[in-house]
């Protein structure tokens, strides 16, 4: 395929921007980026005239299975979320409900130009639940890192033992190919939800299996089981294979420890600012000061929008609100990097996605520039951050395959909605 004559925001290390550029794709991989490229015989030409061409966006932490209960937690605090969803209706999710939620959530991501999702799946009540999660991700056609986690219980999980053994089966039988569209990770309960000994056992299993680790660590030194990041550092658990989610309670010293060990961080700006008891704080300014460029995430559609345009705007606003007079404001284009190349690094896929460069997967999002909300276009990256929304996403490619064309998903969306509706009726009681 040749993507012809689009306004390219490559997000490459040089920040290359081509107002009239082409992208040549072979076998799902970008081979050439330039202008006036020749189309080899038999090449499909995708006319991108009047469109912005971006790398597919990367969501670094999304509880995709929760999509059927979307928007019900708009007023929830963190304890409400834990009680009502994780310890409540979530326990009623059958494998078919996990499939329905994950399918609709993944399609929602694709519709919004998100081509890669770290699917933080803490609903593995049985091996069948795991199989359903993976099947839904594959059926949706999204690139995904399946972060397997057993259910987080209301009781102190220190007594629950290490990570469920089902992860070993998932890794060796379902997701053994690290180059496939869906790959494996551990969604570790982490020291906010269990003792440090169990955390160490979990991390040890992930490292034995050779998969990345992602863990919620929001509480800082006041957590119920531990002393947050410091506890992991003291136990020798920090490393470049670890993504810390939220970090809203982290101190400057905590963040320096993460940076010194090469850890990555995923932030969820909308939920972090609007969900009481999660911190009401986005540590973006502190992360950048520590030398950590975080990835962005939706977190849960129970209490947040399902697109990264919203998260970019919340992130930018949070940073600007925390910036003292006289200090230069964070450029909007830097936030777009967090949703693309920085997100790819956070997801452990920096060699594969996040920028439009030869050798990278052809994961692309094309936005219409003739929208009344974008025209006339001058500062392209700023326009995306300040004004873009899923309705402007015209075309989406994952590994060179078109999954959205002409503003419509190439999927059976009616089926996905019907399955999720049936799940909502089951888990919420009609």
What this model shows, in words?
With 430 residues, this protein is an alpha/beta fold. The protein folds into two domains: 105 residues, Urease, subunit C, domain 1 (Roll); 290 residues, Metal-dependent hydrolases (TIM Barrel), CATH 3.20.20.140. Helices cover 33% and strands 22% of the residues. The protein is built from 14 helices and 17 strands. Helix 2 crosses helix 14 and helix 11 crosses helix 13. The longest helix is centred in the N-terminal third of the chain and has 17 residues. 55% of the residues are buried.
Q: How would the global form be characterised?
A: globular
CATH topology of the largest domain: TIM Barrel
Uncertain stretches: 154-159, 221-225
The CATH architecture category of the largest domain equals: Alpha-Beta Barrel
Q: Work out the helicity level.
A: 25-40%
Strand content: 15-25%
Our measurement of the CA-to-CA distance between the termini, rounded to an integer number of angstroms, reads 46 Å
Class of the largest domain, according to the CATH hierarchy? Alpha Beta
Corresponding CATH superfamily of the largest domain:
Metal-dependent hydrolases
Tally of DSSP β-strands: 17
**Biggest sheet, open or closed, and with what strands and sense?**
9 strands, mixed
Judged by helices, strands and strand pairing, the structural class is alpha/beta
Number of domains: 2
> What is the radius of gyration?
21 Å
Number of helices: 14
> What number is the mean pLDDT?
94
Pfam families: Amidohydro_1
Protein name: Amidohydrolase family protein
Domain Amidohydrolase-related: 52-403
